[in-house]
Design goal:
single chain, mainly alpha, globular
Length: 385
C-alpha cells in the first residue's frame, strides 16, 4: 500500500513549489519540507500512516492482511469482481431465445388472431392457437406420446404482457449469468429446467393448457441460488474472495427479487404455478452438478457433485413416473370445442382442414375420429400453411 501511494505521488504533476524545491536544495531549509511540516493533526507522514492503518487491517479469517472496511469501496470492488469473472463477453443464447420467442408471438398472433380480453387478458391468441403451436397439453403428452410438448412451451407465451415480463428478466439476469457461467452451462440449466417445469405442470395441473419460458427462467434463479449456497460453504482467503463474498450477498437479493417477480405471474391465464416451482427445483439440482466444481476442496467437491447427480436423477425419474400415472382430461383433445363451453364468442381460427380429416399430432386431433379441435362449420375460412 505504501509503495502504491509513493507511485501515485510521483505520477502527479509537480507544482511550482515542488519544482523550485527540486531545483534549489536550499528551498527546504528556507520554506520547510512538506514531508516534515507540522499540522494540527500531526505531520503529513504521520497522518498518511494513520490513514493506511485504518484502511488496512488484518482479517482473522483471511490469510492475507486486508479487510474491506468501507461499504462503498467494497461495493465497487465486488462489482469489478463480478465483471472480471465472466467467462465470455457476449450472451448469444439468451438473446437468441428472446428473439425467437418474440418472432413466434408475432407470427402466432398474425396467423391465428388476437383473442378478446375476456378470453385472454394477456393480449394474445386463442388457447387453441397455443395448443396448435405446441403448448403443454397433458392428454396429448401422456396418452398420445407427444413428449416434444415438454420442450416447446418455452418458445410460446400467452400474450404480449407475458412475453414482455419473461423477456426482460431473461435479458437482464439471464444475460449476465450466461456471461458468467458460459453458454454451455447456461443451456444445460435453461433447457433442463424447461423440461422439469413442463413435467411438474403435467403432473399437478393436467387440466390446463400452459405455455411460457418462465419455468426455465425460474431454473436460472434456482441454479444461481445453488451456486451461492456452494460457494458460501468455503472460507474467504484473500481480498478477491472477500469481494466475491460481498457480491454473492448482492446476487442473493437479485435472486430473491427475481423469484418474487416471476412467481407473481404464476396465476395468470395459461401459466401455472407448478411449472414455476418445477423449473426452480430442477434448476437448483442441476446447479449442484454444474457448480460443484467451483469448490476448492476435492472432498467437498466430490460430495456435492454426487449429491447433485443423485438429486437430479431422483427428481426426474420420480416426476416422469408420476406424470405417466396422472388422470388426464380427454376433452382437451379438442381444445377449441373445450373452450367453447366457457366462452360464447370463442372462434377457432387456427385449425386446418387436414387436421379435421386425418386427426393431427399438433392441432389437438383425436386420431381421425373427431374434428381436430374445431367443428367442420368453422373450417371453411381457416388459414393454411
Amino acid at each position: 500500500m505504501a509503495s502504491l501511494l509513493a507511485q501515485t505521488r510521483s505520477s502527479r504533476p509537480r507544482t511550482g513549489r515542488q519544482r523550485a524545491r527540486r531545483s534549489d536544495p536550499s528551498f527546504d531549509e528556507e520554506e520547510g519540507s512538506l514531508d516534515n511540516r507540522s499540522t494540527p493533526g500531526g505531520s503529513l507522514d504521520d497522518r498518511s500512516a494513520a490513514g493506511e492503518s485504518e484502511m488496512v487491517k488484518q482479517n482473522g479469517e483471511a490469510t492475507e492482511d486486508y479487510q474491506l472496511q468501507d461499504d462503498e469501496d467494497a461495493e465497487t470492488i465486488a462489482t469489478h469482481h463480478m465483471d472480471a469473472h465472466h467467462k465470455q463477453r457476449y450472451a448469444p443464447c439468451s438473446i437468441l431465445f428472446a428473439l425467437v420467442q418474440s418472432i413466434i408471438m408475432i407470427v402466432m398472433m398474425w396467423q391465428c388472431g388476437v383473442a378478446p380480453l375476456n378470453i385472454n387478458p394477456m393480449v394474445g391468441p386463442y388457447p387453441d392457437a397455443l395448443n396448435y403451436w405446441g403448448a403443454k397439453n397433458a392428454v396429448l403428452i401422456v396418452e398420445d406420446g407427444e413428449a416434444w410438448r415438454l420442450f416447446t412451451p418455452i418458445f410460446l407465451h400467452a400474450g404480449l404482457i407475458h412475453l414482455a415480463g419473461n423477456v426482460m428478466v431473461q435479458l437482464d439476469a439471464g444475460n449476465t449469468w450466461e456471461k458468467e457461467w458460459g453458454s454451455v452451462i447456461w443451456m444445460i440449466v435453461y433447457v433442463g429446467s424447461a423440461f422439469g417445469s413442463s413435467v411438474f405442470s403435467t403432473c399437478f395441473m393436467p387440466d390446463n393448457i400452459s405455455v411460457g419460458s418462465s419455468g426455465a427462467v425460474m431454473g436460472l434463479f434456482g441454479a444461481k441460488f445453488s451456486e451461492i449456497v456452494l460457494l458460501c460453504c468455503e472460507r474467504s482467503t484473500n481480498i478477491r474472495e472477500l469481494a466475491g463474498e460481498r457480491s454473492r450477498k448482492r446476487q442473493m437479493c437479485m435472486v430473491v427479487g427475481g423469484i418474487v417477480i416471476v412467481a407473481a405471474m404464476s396465476f395468470i391465464p395459461y401459466v401455472d404455478w407448478a411449472a414455476h416451482l418445477g423449473g426452480m427445483i430442477a434448476g437448483f439440482v442441476l446447479g449442484l452438478v454444474c457448480f460443484s466444481f467451483k469448490i476448492r476442496s476435492y472432498i467437498f467437491m466430490l460430495l456435492w457433485f454426487v449429491v447433485g447427480v443423485g438429486s437430479t436423477i431422483a427428481l426426474y425419474s420420480i416426476a416422469m413416473a408420476y406424470m405417466y400415472s396422472v388422470e388426464t382430461n380427454d376433452e382437451l383433445r379438442d381444445v377449441c370445442g373445450y373452450y367453447k363451453q366457457f366462452f360464447e364468442d370463442y372462434q377457432c381460427n387456427c385449425q386446418l382442414d387436414e387436421a379435421v380429416q386425418f386427426g393431427s399430432w399438433s392441432w389437438g386431433g383425436n386420431n381421425g375420429e373427431g374434428n381436430g379441435g374445431g367443428s367442420a362449420d368453422n373450417n371453411s375460412g381457416d388459414e393454411k400453411f
